[in-house]
Automatic annotation (TrEMBL):
Domain SsuA/THI5-like: 157-315
Region Disordered, annotated ranges: 26-91
Name of the molecule in the record: ABC transporter substrate-binding protein
Sequence ranges of Low complexity compositional bias: 26-53
Signal peptide boundaries: 1-29
Organism this protein belongs to: Candidatus Copromonas faecavium (nom. illeg.)
Keyword terms: Signal
Lineage: Bacteria, Bacillati, Bacillota, Clostridia, Lachnospirales
Length: 381
């Protein structure tokens, strides 16, 4: 994995978070008693949310390359009985919410694999861990995974989608029921030049709207958008979860007027599997080549954990709070149905993710690392 460091650090320097997936964002949202939580951009992604900024400057890559020579690889660890320990890294946000049941099972000795879990509050921390070969599996913003694949000589593969879209239009004006009704309106949002903007522009353009028809007023933090909605409920804001839940809980006049994930789905042809994707799970290809059985077992356990999240939201919310992802279980429980936690693998994963990356590429090739990943990027068991 020595080749990964220069590019990963470059990605960490240049990438911005996918609204709604970042951990610090989620934690703050849960703790905030005001109209909303803290900024939805710490990050590179995702997880959301969130993601990493898609702009990877050549100069940053060169600077990172110089520092890479001092790094040493850390090989996969083994437990005292010789069993391989799978080191899993995640963000404290929606992308890791579907993993908490597996984390509990592992702590109680009930998991099939031997795991070591690490959660961080910003995507650049996690990409640095991947760069230093300190984790074998990582849950990252979707576009960041593509950037890493392109910039690391294909040293990582995506094994599943862990979170679909977490972006929602929020307003007190419930007369707005379709995207074309945004003509002549102003939408307040964060994330200029990042994947939330690209996804929203895609949906707007499909409705025949351009930048001249809809004013996008970008703010630096989700709290600013929430504050505008608090002062003027008829304003329209594009917010990620869990900010949406917090904003609605503080202002009865607000409601969700549109789910961008649903709007994305409406635009797809019958034979298209494209989905609005927030977070994915990647694996170090060196580890995958050595331990394909362990990776496949992880996928089974990840899927079971995500299903537990869907079927037992109250119990899972307690685990989420205990893990420090969201400070208060009630906030987590209210937000969970809108976080689109999932575990999509195989051909379904490839179809959903490749279609999403194509949309980003059409708007800004650098958002996915300059070129669309080839088939080898998608791990099909």
């Amino acid at each position: 994995m020595r080749k990964i460091l220069p590019v990963m650090l470059a990605a960490a320097l240049g990438l911005s978070v996918l609204s709604g997936c970042s951990s610090s964002t989620t934690e703050t949202a849960a703790e905030t008693t005001g109209a909303a939580a803290s900024e939805s951009q710490t990050e590179a992604a995702s997880e959301g949310s969130a993601a990493a900024e898609t702009d990877t400057e050549g100069s940053s890559a060169e600077e990172a390359e110089g520092s890479s020579e001092a790094q040493e690889d850390t090989q996969a660890e083994s437990s005292e009985d010789g069993e391989t320990v799978i080191r899993v890294g995640g963000l404290k946000g929606p992308t890791t919410m579907g993993l908490v049941k597996l984390m509990e099972d592992a702590e109680n000795g009930e998991a099939q694999n031997n795991y070591e879990f690490t959660m961080v509050t910003a995507a650049d921390e996690l990409t640095a861990m991947v760069a230093g070969n300190q984790v074998d599996i990582a849950l990252l913003p979707a576009n960041v995974a593509s950037v890493l694949y392109n910039r690391t000589d294909k040293q990582v593969s995506v094994v599943d989608i862990n979170t679909l879209g977490v972006l929602y239009l929020v307003s007190g004006d419930t007369s707005i029921t379709s995207i074309d009704q945004l003509a002549g309106k102003t939408v307040y949002l964060t994330g200029k030049g990042t994947t939330p903007e690209y996804a929203f522009n895609y949906i707007l353009s499909a409705a025949g709207l351009t930048a001249e028809d809809v004013t996008l007023d970008f703010r630096s933090e989700a709290t600013e958008v929430a504050a505008i909605l608090a002062e003027n409920p008829d304003a329209i804001g594009l917010l990620p979860q869990p900010f949406v839940t917090v904003a609605l809980s503080q202002n009865d006049s607000l409601s969700i007027i549109m789910d961008l994930t649903e709007e994305w789905d409406k635009l797809q042809a019958e034979d298209s599997g494209s989905r609005l994707v927030t977070g994915v799970t990647i694996v170090n290809n060196e580890f995958l080549a050595e331990h394909p059985d362990l990776v496949n077992t992880f996928l089974e356990e990840h899927e079971a954990s995500a299903l537990y999240t869907d079927n037992h939201p109250a119990e899972d919310a307690e685990l989420i709070a205990a893990a420090g992802i969201v400070a208060q279980a009630p906030i987590a429980e209210k937000a969970l149905p809108y976080c689109n936690i999932t575990c999509i693998t195989g051909e379904d994963m490839k179809g959903a993710l490749s279609g999403y990356l194509e949309v980003l590429y059409e708007q800004n090739p650098e958002s996915v690392g300059g070129t669309l990943p080839d088939d080898a990027f998608y791990y099909i068991p």
